[in-house]
Each structure stands twice: as C-alpha cells, then as structure tokens.
Amino acid sequence: MSEATPELRVLEELRKADRDRFLCALAAPAALRSDLGTLYAFNAELAGIADKVTEPMLGHIRLQWWRDALADIEAARAHRHHLVQAVAELAARRHLSSQKLHALIDARERDVEREQLDSLPALEAYAGDTSGALAELALDIALPDAAPAFRAAARRAGTAYGLVGLARATPHFARQGRVVLPGLDKDLALSLKGGPDVAHIVAHVADLAAEHLAALRQERLPRRAIAAFFPARLAAAQLEQLRRHGYDPFATGSVAPSGLHIWRLLLARWLGRI
Predict the structure, then answer these.
(1) What is the mean pLDDT of residues 39-47?
(2) Domain check: are 98 and 142 in the same one?
(3) What is the pLDDT of residue 1?
(4) What contacts 45, CB < 8 A, 6 or more positions away?
(5) Is the separation of the CB atoms in 69 and 79 below 8 Å?
(6) How many domains are there within the chain?
(7) Residue numbers of the domain that contains 254
C-alpha cells in the first residue's frame, strides 16, 4: 500500500483532532481544501496542547517549540516535522502573516495555565483571539484582498463559533479538571452534572454568540470566500441544538455530533451565504 501524501496525512490528523473544521475544509472548493486543512490542523495542534500536558510548564515548552518552528519558517530553514513543512509551504504560497500565526500561539497561553475566565467580555476576547483570528487567516487564504468589513465579518464568524464551542466543551473541560466559562461554579462543573445553574450561564454565552451571528447575517459576504465563514454555519446549528436541550451541555444529546453538518456546509457553499 502506498504511503499517504502529506496533504492527506494532514487532513487525516485534522479529522481526528477537529471534526468540525475537517468538515469545513472538506466542503470548501478544491482550490482551498488542502490549504484550509493545513491551517486548521496547525490550530488543532495548538489547541490540543493543554489536553496533552500534565502541568503548565510543559505546555509552555510545547508552545515555544512552535514559536521556534515559525522562526525556522521565517528564516527559510528546513524542518523535519511534516506539519511544520506544510505550514511553511502554506505561508509562502498564500503570503500569510507571520505575526498572525504567532498570535495564534500566544492566544493558547491561557489554555495551558488552565485559568477560568472572569467575565463574558474576557470570554468573548479569548474566542476572538483564537477562533476569530483563525477565521481571519482562513479569509486571507480564500480572499487575500478582502475589504476590512469582510475581515471584521470573518472575525465575528470565528468568534461566534468559538463561543459556542467553549460552551459545548464544558463537560470535556470538567473531565480534565478545568472550568473555563465565567461564573460557573467549579465544584458544580467538576461533578459532571448539569442543571439550571449551568444552563443559565451557557444561555448567556449563547446569547453573545447569537449576537455575532445576527450581525454577520447583515453582511453580504463574498461568495468566493464563503468557505472562510463555514464555522458560523456550524455555530448556528449547534446553538439550536443547545437551545433544544435547555442550554445544558451535560444533557444527553446536547453536544452530540451531527451527520447533517457536511450537508449544511455544502448548502451554504451552493447558496453563497451562511
């Protein structure tokens, strides 16, 4: 059996680490698919560091490894790691900003510190610096000359998805001994039980995400760059799923993956809107 190509290897790793963004890459036009897959795989690698380390210092070391890898890319030095090679090729081909890539790494410092965010504005800023910034980079791939309004819209799309994702990940974080959402009682979350108190906080996060989605839908998005906005389509569906389960992420079925997501994305691509 022949060895998988580097592109397929990266996509397969993305499928295992971040199913949603794997589907976003899969549903994108062929000319964007591999590059979006590489960008999202890079993000998944950074986002997964906190799950893989047992103490903050080890997480900081891994983040520094990626900073050093980006420095190698900037200096045109060869690198043996297959994902670093893929990111280097992507950055050169699409002229991605090194500063923006470094910012994605910096935003993950909070993850490895395992700190609970202290307010909704702080949660919104974190979602913007991670998922929102990633969506802007996706737009840089899909539409390098995008107008500032479209860049702001991409950040909204990513921020909305990030907020919904943080709410949905509450049980996952709790199983790791982490609490992220502001105002959520740690003992309650770590008990792995939902209820009205959890739902109340998640509902506030959902409202904030819905505001970003509502503003996004007022924009006439560039059709040829719609793939960069795909996460917002998933966020809308996931918000509705949470709503049906009373905004309790611990409720059975409230955060279950949907087999309809790929069709939602393909329809968004066909219609040219989220």
Answers:
(1) 98
(2) no
(3) 39
(4) 17, 66, 83
(5) yes
(6) 2
(7) 115-274
Report d(CA 250, CA 110) in Å as an integer.
Answer: 24
Q: Sign of the C-alpha dihedral, residues 161, 167, 171, 176?
A: positive
CA distance 206 to 7: 35
Closest CA to 200 of 245, 247, 255, 253: 247
75 and 100 fall within a common domain: yes
Cβ(35)–Cβ(94) below 8 Å: yes
The reported pLDDT for the residue numbered 159 is 98
* Number of residues that make up the chain: 274
63 close to 105: Cβ distance less than 8 angstroms:
yes
Residue pair 248/254 in contact by the 8 Å Cβ criterion: yes
Distance CA 60, CA 49 (A): 9
Q: Where do the DSSP E strands lie in the chain?
A: none
On the question of pLDDT at 243 being above 60, the answer is yes
112 contacts 50 by C-beta, under 8 angstroms? yes
**pTM confidence score:** 0.96
Query: With 0-12 CB in 10 A as exposed, 13-18 as middle and 19+ as buried, what is 187?
Result: exposed
Which residue from 264, 273, 271 is spatially nearest to 24, judged by alpha carbons?
Answer: 264
